[in-house]
Amino acid sequence: MNSFFGSLFWLLVTLGVLVTFHEFGHFWVARRLGVRVLRFSVGFGKAVWKHVSRDGVEYQIAAIPLGGYVKMLDAREGVVPPQLRDQEFTVQPVWKRILIVLAGPGFNLIFTVAALWLMFVIGRPDVAPIVTAQPQSMAAVAGVQSGDRIVRIGGREVDTWSDSLDALANALLGRTPLPLTVRRPDGIQHQLRLPLNELPPGQTVDRYLTTLGLTLAPPPAIVATVLPGQPAALGGMQGGDRILAINGKPVSDFDALGKLLQTQAAISPKLTLAIERHGKPLTLAVTARHEALQGQPAHWVIGVGAAPLETATLRYGAARALTASLHDTWRNTVQTFAMVGKMVGGEASTKNLSSVIGIAQMANASAHMGLAWFLQFLAMVSLSLAVLNLLPIPVLDGGHLLYYLIELLKGSPLSDQAMAIGQYIGLVLLFSLMGLVFYNDIHRLLLS
């Protein structure tokens, strides 16, 4: 239940911030262009809070927080007093109406740049893209080895694991051969090729990543901590020791150490550990214990801990952060439109889309990871809102923009009947899309 309420809270924070910023774009530009605004609402339905300013604008927070709107003076919705006719929306030149419509998505893009800039200035903690490949996976067949550091994916340089996943996810949607540059522990770079064209169509990015088999490499079998009074300490082990083998069976990394410890100690808790200390081989006798440590279920332990994964924090100065935020906004905008195109063309699966359920889960997860991660999440959702609203679907900003562009071409507005038909078509498309994304999230929840 804590996870549910946490997800709900952070969803409301996300929607509250982004919807307010989006609608403020419409509000601000409309007022600057001389259009009278009657109401600024965050949310739909009955008002739970309301305030009327001196200039007559009604500000409100409504009961259903899944959007918002700006109500302008509009002759289609009632009689307009003669003295206010020049402030009515529909009499404005078409270029003014286009700017007012574009202002919402435009402010979402401004928010994206600002949030990414602040994220870069604060610094987003991450881990280095040092990877391994699951046995017999596509990455393993392509030549990825344990300990490889990803340097470049396609034409994009990456410094963190999260950026690597982002680049891979976008490449997986296209399913075309992907160049991969890695640097081996010896410092030599290798050019590999991931045959993503061999992936079957119609699957989710998560399924593709599983097939690819590229994961973070476990830490090496080097002891970082030795718990006092535990078997390893009693056997003479010290921090910095590298465990080479247990009972003659080689240990490749810390994950392999844990698995081998369970199987060997189950046969006999008296273990012979081959280690390396300061470059010299040593042999230690250690008797494992079957107990629970730090709230974990009971299992065989010797009381050693691994070193943390190598960190890679993205942090820039103010000037470079601005350049990076503009670059990332542009790249993600292009990628988002490309993904929409691939979904429309059937090249990418619509199973990758999420509803407010998925957004709520991601909001909660990113908020618990820290401010920088939550800022990045807000930036990506804001960008998605901008792109969604620019789609030429009536009832969205892009649909209104389409009407105004047609008006520019034909020299007169569309008829009320044509716009009404468009609205009905837009509602059908919008509700169909909502049904699809809700189905995706509910299906994922049931599978998990």
What separation lies between the terminal Cα atoms? Answer: 16 Å
- Specify the number of helices: 12
Shape: elongated
Secondary structure category: alpha+beta
Given as residue ranges, the uncertain stretches (5+ residues, pLDDT < 50) are none
Number of spatially distinct domains: 3
- Estimate the helix proportion, in percent: 40-55%
Radius of gyration: 28 Å
Main beta sheet: 6 strands, antiparallel
Order of helices and strands: HEEHEHEEHEEHEEHEEHEEEEEHHHHH
The assembly state of the depicted protein chains is: single chain
Mean pLDDT: 90
* Percentage of β-strand residues: 15-25%
The tally of strands reads 16
Description:
By secondary structure, the protein is of the alpha+beta class. The protein has three domains: 98-122 and 320-448, no CATH class; 126-218 and 308-312, PDZ domain (Pdz3 Domain), CATH 2.30.42; 223-301, Pdz3 Domain, CATH 2.30.42. The chain contains twelve helices and 16 strands. Strands 3, 4, 5, 6, 7 and 8 form a six-stranded antiparallel β-sheet that branches. Strand 10 (242-246) and strand 11 (249-250) form a beta hairpin. Helix 1 (2-32) crosses helix 9 (356-369), helix 2 (94-122) crosses helix 8 and helix 2 (94-122) packs antiparallel against helix 10 (371-390). The model has no long low-confidence stretch (mean pLDDT 90).
